[in-house]
Amino acid sequence: MKAPVIFLLAATTIVLPSGATLASVSLPVGAKETPGTHEASEGTRPGPWTPGLVEPVEHPLERSEHKLAPGDLLSLLFWGPVEASYLLEVAADGALLVPSLGCIEVAGRNVAEAESLVASIARVAFPSSRVALRLVRAAHIKVWVTGAVMRPGIYELGSGSRLSDAIVAAEGLTEASDVRRIVIWGAGRKPAEVDLLRWRVMGEEAGNPVLQSGARVFVPRMRATYQVAGAAASIRVPPSGSASQLRVIPHRPGDTVSFAIAAAGGPGSASAEEGAWLLRGSTRQWVPADSMDRVLLEPGDRVEVPVEESWIAVSGAVVRPGLYPYVPGQTAAAYVFAAGGPSLAGRHDGWNILSPDGTRSDLDPADPVPPGSRIWVPQRRTRTISEFLTPLSTAVALIVSLTVLLK
Fold first, then answer.
1. If I label 392, which of 41, 120, 313, 407 is the partner at 20 to 30 A Cα–Cα?
2. Segment 205-251, tens digit of pLDDT
3. What average pLDDT does range 124-150 have in this prediction?
4. Which residue(s) pair with 352 in the sheet?
5. Under CATH, to which class is 6-137 assigned?
6. Share of the chain above pLDDT 70, in %
7. What residues form DSSP beta bridges with 91?
8. How far is CA 293 from CA 231, 263, 266, 309, in A?
9. Which of 253, 352, 370 lies closest to 311, judged by CA?
10. 3-class secondary structure for 190-220?
């Protein structure tokens, strides 16, 4: 039995089956294909890839977006009259050493372009064979991240990593970061300004580009901004009477009310969803839901997402005044009971209700309460023996004092 033939190429080892020869895998440039060669290649397949050479790529990469760089590992497959497969690594000078074809410059080309180039060269030697080139392992890249991030520095990322990966590597953004005007530039390239927020909200890939080795990312601080308050998904709705939390969003021309709400996480579960208030200076404008994508925002604006009236306020002479969740069909007595019931001085009837429209009326404890209402429990008007005796004792003391003085 013949010993296996070991073929070394660009730090990649391919073990051929016993009895196979290199001639059955590749032909020298200019050699002619013969039936004998074709027959010899049938049943001949390259051996298994060396374990550890293949690493998963961090993100699925489009053939047209990944630019090949030194260290990228590629699989090259020939099939047809000649069948062969190779694992090839892009060398430090950007070339791919292909058996029988020589060195082919691929650095800076995407995978599809490199495949087309290899196929055009292989077509001269093997007119009837077909070629497929695939990225197996992407080389790592170094990226500079500076500006308003938690930890500026130089980070090593997987090739094909995007801007968002670089931000994560820098441990995220600061509160003052302007994600709408992130600047990216590299060697020999003009600086490009990208809007990462539009990628997060609208899914625009241009806002989260693939980074190349040596790219520099600068995150500036916010300048022009607007605010979103109320029942947006990322804002905790506070109890009535306390200050509302805000989301501060960097402004860019063309931002609408609907985009601002989407940037704040979209309408929350407590939102009324009929529209939103737009506060600009001293004016307050109601924007219906069907118009929110047409109303443009200006720096300094404030968008308020209205909160659905899903609570009942119980106040007055009760044990625990406060806000209580609205339950459809629940009676006034149930809400007062949830508040601990009337206090020692509280009345058990004669309650008042202030409806969401501002009207006040008497309320029977058995009446159902509409959402957003306020229940008022007044104090009892009671008379004790001491209340009757105090005026009498005062009058007696006055008479006694006058009698003493007159004597």
1. 407
2. 899 998 888 899 999 999 999 999 876 666 555 444 344 568 899 99
3. 88
4. 362, 376
5. alpha beta
6. 71
7. none
8. 18, 13, 13, 25
9. 370
10. CCEEECHHHHHHHCCHHHCCECCCCCEEEEC
Q: What is the pLDDT of residues 65-103, one digit of tens each?
A: 778 888 888 999 988 887 888 899 888 888 898 888 889
In single-letter form, the type of residue at position 153 comes to G
CA dist 335 and 313 (Å) reads 9
The domain locations on the chain are 6-137, 140-219, 225-305, 311-377
Positions of E strands within 231-294: 246-250, 275-280, 283-288
Across the beta sheet with 283-288, what order do the strands follow? 246-250, 225-230, 302-305, 275-280, 283-288
Task: Could you please state the CATH topology (level 3) that the domain comprising 311-377 is classified under.
Answer: Outer membrane lipoprotein wza fold like (3.10.560)
Q: How far is CA 213 from CA 65, 112, 142, 159, 191, in A?
A: 14, 20, 5, 8, 15
Q: Under DSSP, is residue 336 helix (H, G, I), strand (E, B) or coil?
A: helix
- In sign, the C-alpha dihedral spanning 124, 128, 129, 130 is positive
Q: What is the CA radius of gyration of the chain?
A: 39
pLDDT of 34 > 60? The answer is no
Strands 311-316 and 374-377: parallel
Amino acid 38: pLDDT: 33
**Which CATH homologous superfamily contains domain 225-305?**
Outer membrane lipoprotein wza domain like (3.10.560.10)
Residue 50: is its pLDDT beyond 50? no
Query: What is the residue whose two structure tokens read 């004016």?
Result: 283
